[in-house]
Design brief:
Helix content is 45%, strand content 17%. The chain has 16 helices and 12 strands. The termini are far apart. Its main location: periplasm.
Length: 339
């Protein structure tokens, strides 16, 4: 009996389609736009494009890049983008409350035992005594905007440490990095591929881990327009299929390391086309490797973490108290769990 690996099987299916032997999804060739950030955590989409998993699902995908979560949510609501992966934010929840968008799955997660998001201090603040999150009282914490995931993480850390600190909105990740390097803000939290690069260059100091405060944090979610979720169910399922296949390859290579060093290097080459593409591969690779975090298999969604985030936004007066999970989450597409 001849056995085929996954790639060979997909190749045979493609050949069957070419000869007219049934592949209605491929024949659709639907053009869709997928929003992304140039973060290692968006590798599921990158792999699905590069290895043809979206195409195999019948989707002609264009990646569109953003510099923060909020503009991506607005682009989904306006119809400029069809699907995206981003953190839960006050803006996203408010757009869902208006009937514009729906979360349909989970992506990046904090997981015990896997290096996750770091809490950083500016060199100036570190030298002045900010050597752990316990000293955040009275400090300035950088965020993109009020109601962002940075705001949520910083607030949860401050609450746990009983520290009163202020939040400085700077709109874009690049602006936050500049402010942290120059000492205009004292602290920030960010995914490890950025944190490790900054700390490795001596520009900032690592003073803690988000997983110590939010051990099972559902960092990012997969979302789409409410119209796509309700009226384009086949297309939405096809998107999740392609995305999940990309995630499976990424996880096998970067987290479980089933392909050994060769598998890691092959995946780094792919990701480098999108992350730190302006740097030589040898300089980008260490940050990409250190930035590898778990992305949920089959887009499973940690509904307990999403509920905690919603409750925090409501407690801060950033979204309406009448909003429920059903308002902005469609649980019909993927498995949900509580952790």
């Amino acid at each position: 009996m001849i056995k085929f690996n996954r790639r060979q099987t997909l190749g045979l299916l493609g050949a069957a389609a070419a000869t007219g032997l049934a592949a209605p999804a491929i024949a659709q060739n639907k053009k869709i736009v997928v929003g992304a950030l140039r973060f290692t955590s968006h590798s599921g989409s990158f792999v699905a494009v590069e290895r043809g998993y979206f195409a195999d699902a019948g989707l002609d995908v264009e990646l569109r890049f953003f510099q923060a979560a909020q503009p991506m949510a607005v682009a989904i609501a306006s119809g400029d983008v069809d699907y995206a992966v981003t953190a839960v934010s006050g803006g996203l929840i408010s757009l869902a409350d208006k009937g514009a968008i729906k979360v349909i799955g989970g992506a990046l997660s904090e997981e015990p035992g896997i290096d996750g998001q770091k809490i950083l201090a500016s060199n100036a603040a570190f030298e002045a005594g900010l050597t752990s999150p316990a000293q955040l009282g009275g400090k300035k914490f950088g965020i993109s905007n009020a109601g962002s995931s940075f705001h949520y993480m910083g607030s949860r850390v401050a609450q746990a440490e009983n520290a009163e600190m202020s939040f400085t909105p700077l709109q874009k990740v690049g602006a936050i990095i500049g402010a942290l390097k120059s000492g205009q803000i004292d602290a920030w939290s960010i995914q490890p591929h950025i944190a490790s690069a900054l700390a490795g260059s001596g520009a900032v100091q690592v003073i803690g881990k988000i997983s110590d405060y939010l051990p099972n944090y559902q960092v990012t979610t997969v979302f789409t327009s409410a119209k796509n979720a309700s009226d384009e169910r086949e297309q939405t399922s096809d998107f999740l299929k392609g995305f999940s296949n990309g995630v499976a390859d990424y996880t096998a290579a970067m987290i479980d390391k089933t392909g050994g060093e060769e598998g890691v290097n092959e995946m780094v080459d792919l990701i480098h086309k999108y992350v730190y593409a302006d740097r030589p591969r040898e300089k980008a690779a260490p940050s990409i490797i250190k930035g590898a975090m778990r992305i949920n298999k089959d887009a499973r969604l940690n509904i307990a973490s999403v509920q905690d985030q919603l409750s925090w936004f409501q407690s801060e007066g950033l979204v309406d108290n009448d909003i429920t999970l059903d308002t902005f989450v469609d649980t019909s597409y993927v498995e949900t769990y509580k952790a």
